[in-house]
Amino acid sequence: MIALIDVNNFYVSCQRVFEPKLEGKPMVVLSNNDGCVISRSAEAKALGVKMGAPWHQLREFAKETGLIAYSSNYALYADMSNRVMRVLGMFSPHQEIYSIDECFLGLNGIGGDYTELGQTLKQTVMQWTGLPVCVGIAPTKTLAKLANHIAKKRTGFAGVCEWAKFSPDQQLQIMREIEVGEVWGVGRKISQRLNQQGIYSAADLAQANSEQIRARYSVVLQRTVEELNGHPCIQIEEMQPDKQQILCSRSFGQPIYTEQQLAEAISTYIARAAEKLRMQKSVAASLSIFIRTNPFRPKDPQYSRHVMLPLSQATDDTLKLTQVALWMLARIYQPGFSYAKAGVMLSDLQPNTAIQGHLFLQTADPMKRAELNATMDEINRRWGRGSIHLASAGAHHAWKMKQNSLSPFWTTRWSDLPVVK
Amino acid sequence: MTSFLQGPFPVDPNPAVHYLPWIGESVPAGFPSPAADWVEDRVDLNQHLISHPEATFYFTVSGDSMVSHLSERTIPNGATLVVDRAIQAKHNDIVVAAIDGDFTVKRLFQRGKHLALVAENPDYPPIVLGDEQELSVWGVVIAWIVRPK
């Protein structure tokens, strides 16, 4: 048996843990640069605020309705996510962290009533972290997702839905009421094709001929069909596979024009990407950077350039990567444009153990360099991101994200602890 | 547009130097350390104070409502509170509570149905909850940290 647990309105709920005042109020969390809505409270949903709605179109509406908006505070969300995942991990040795706010738990070998266990999971996460979760329990991952969907969307489940508690007739009836596009693993494109073929609901897909589905679509969708019928085909992946590439890119808070400012942004993104690279103990064998203007301002002259460079020596050294990236930037930068976004990507990743033989050939003192990088990581971990950085990352950061309504880093900085009277 | 850059590649500022790999541990000369068999983990404040790391949060105290000359449990302005959410609050615990959406730190008084939040400072009257008011205990204060000026 498998449980899928996810946090309701995760970002909004994280904010509310530290500002109980927000309970019961319509509120949203905005994407980078305060662009669009990425998390909504139930009250905001009831007001008709749509996911992905651009904030600038909602400003007036917010004044009229009292809708509150927060900038995204990823330091807080990451810490709260880690807490939730570790609390859930106490209940089963088989855990797959699927995203920042959801995970699968393998329940085989854990006896007792599953619905009761689901309630215990839910109450423990609430007590320990203050975050509300819903739980779906079923024999397959796809059905656990479906059960979770039911627990969340329908009343009367108290946040926990166990698929096996329904009779086969009820199961079919429920699946008839769920659009095929809502089924885990069915994307929008596939659901359009399925619709053309007369498959509209989860029930239609469950009853489709599994062999034909494989022939017409893929073995992946065939597995979905099997899973909807209660035959487990998708295992719980307990180890999170290391990322194959690391991307760090942002839109700027305001347009920038000079190579110097672009260099600061690129340096900052490289520092972050390299830190992630070292965290997963990998090295990168190629590096790409890109810069572009704002395509949504068609009247402005447009420029966009993306370059990739294979590195002669795979590395995780911030200094080395920055040096190469700035050299690349100098070759693609064109003056006279208003730049809106830049990014870096580290790819061809390999475990850092694979290159140790080589390492000794390149840098004068590789051990000292590794120590320097580790020390920078440690300082930034302890004192907050960006406490120490290369001079090329600059100090003024005119390009930095617009985050006008950023809440304090309540759980990750001593200076930002919540205040109690 | 993606393109591959052709050289010249940046010159490594450091000349290539061959290092001999370091093999194994250092060779002991003289006696092995008599302490080596007795290594223990250093005492750790986190370990000592915190039983539920995932449920533990810190707060900063503002104000003097918990300052008392009579009580051993006096918490000065500016102290850092260590708050555990996993513990069920009981009578006489010091708790962080949310009252009408604001955080407050007080002693929890609980006798049967009677609930109140009591300040250690006698200048502050106890907060007895009205029918309209909602009290939710956010977490139990398990320690506080005070640094001498």
TrEMBL record, chain A:
<feature type="domain" description="UmuC">
    <location>
        <begin position="2"/>
        <end position="187"/>
    </location>
</feature>
<dbReference type="InterPro" id="IPR001126">
    <property type="entry name" value="UmuC"/>
</dbReference>
<dbReference type="GO" id="GO:0003887">
    <property type="term" value="F:DNA-directed DNA polymerase activity"/>
</dbReference>
<dbReference type="GO" id="GO:0009432">
    <property type="term" value="P:SOS response"/>
</dbReference>
<keyword id="KW-0234">DNA repair</keyword>
<dbReference type="InterPro" id="IPR043502">
    <property type="entry name" value="DNA/RNA_pol_sf"/>
</dbReference>
<dbReference type="Pfam" id="PF00817">
    <property type="entry name" value="IMS"/>
</dbReference>
<dbReference type="InterPro" id="IPR025188">
    <property type="entry name" value="DUF4113"/>
</dbReference>
<keyword id="KW-0227">DNA damage</keyword>
<dbReference type="Pfam" id="PF11799">
    <property type="entry name" value="IMS_C"/>
</dbReference>
<protein>
    <submittedName>
        <fullName>Y-family DNA polymerase</fullName>
    </submittedName>
</protein>
<dbReference type="GO" id="GO:0005829">
    <property type="term" value="C:cytosol"/>
</dbReference>
<keyword id="KW-0741">SOS mutagenesis</keyword>
<dbReference type="InterPro" id="IPR043128">
    <property type="entry name" value="Rev_trsase/Diguanyl_cyclase"/>
</dbReference>
<dbReference type="GO" id="GO:0003684">
    <property type="term" value="F:damaged DNA binding"/>
</dbReference>
<dbReference type="InterPro" id="IPR050116">
    <property type="entry name" value="DNA_polymerase-Y"/>
</dbReference>
<dbReference type="GO" id="GO:0042276">
    <property type="term" value="P:error-prone translesion synthesis"/>
</dbReference>
<dbReference type="GO" id="GO:0006281">
    <property type="term" value="P:DNA repair"/>
</dbReference>
<comment type="similarity">
    <text>Belongs to the DNA polymerase type-Y family.</text>
</comment>
<dbReference type="InterPro" id="IPR017961">
    <property type="entry name" value="DNA_pol_Y-fam_little_finger"/>
</dbReference>
<keyword id="KW-0742">SOS response</keyword>
<dbReference type="Pfam" id="PF13438">
    <property type="entry name" value="DUF4113"/>
</dbReference>
UniProtKB/TrEMBL annotation, chain B:
<keyword id="KW-0227">DNA damage</keyword>
<dbReference type="GO" id="GO:0003677">
    <property type="term" value="F:DNA binding"/>
</dbReference>
<keyword id="KW-0548">Nucleotidyltransferase</keyword>
<keyword id="KW-0378">Hydrolase</keyword>
<dbReference type="InterPro" id="IPR039418">
    <property type="entry name" value="LexA-like"/>
</dbReference>
<keyword id="KW-0808">Transferase</keyword>
<dbReference type="GO" id="GO:0016787">
    <property type="term" value="F:hydrolase activity"/>
</dbReference>
<dbReference type="GO" id="GO:0006355">
    <property type="term" value="P:regulation of DNA-templated transcription"/>
</dbReference>
<protein>
    <submittedName>
        <fullName>Translesion error-prone DNA polymerase V autoproteolytic subunit</fullName>
        <ecNumber>2.7.7.7</ecNumber>
    </submittedName>
</protein>
<dbReference type="GO" id="GO:0003887">
    <property type="term" value="F:DNA-directed DNA polymerase activity"/>
</dbReference>
<dbReference type="GO" id="GO:0009432">
    <property type="term" value="P:SOS response"/>
</dbReference>
<dbReference type="GO" id="GO:0006281">
    <property type="term" value="P:DNA repair"/>
</dbReference>
<dbReference type="InterPro" id="IPR036286">
    <property type="entry name" value="LexA/Signal_pep-like_sf"/>
</dbReference>
<keyword id="KW-0234">DNA repair</keyword>
<dbReference type="InterPro" id="IPR006197">
    <property type="entry name" value="Peptidase_S24_LexA"/>
</dbReference>
<feature type="domain" description="Peptidase S24/S26A/S26B/S26C">
    <location>
        <begin position="22"/>
        <end position="142"/>
    </location>
</feature>
<comment type="similarity">
    <text>Belongs to the peptidase S24 family.</text>
</comment>
<dbReference type="Pfam" id="PF00717">
    <property type="entry name" value="Peptidase_S24"/>
</dbReference>
<dbReference type="InterPro" id="IPR050077">
    <property type="entry name" value="LexA_repressor"/>
</dbReference>
<keyword id="KW-0068">Autocatalytic cleavage</keyword>
<dbReference type="InterPro" id="IPR015927">
    <property type="entry name" value="Peptidase_S24_S26A/B/C"/>
</dbReference>
<keyword id="KW-0742">SOS response</keyword>
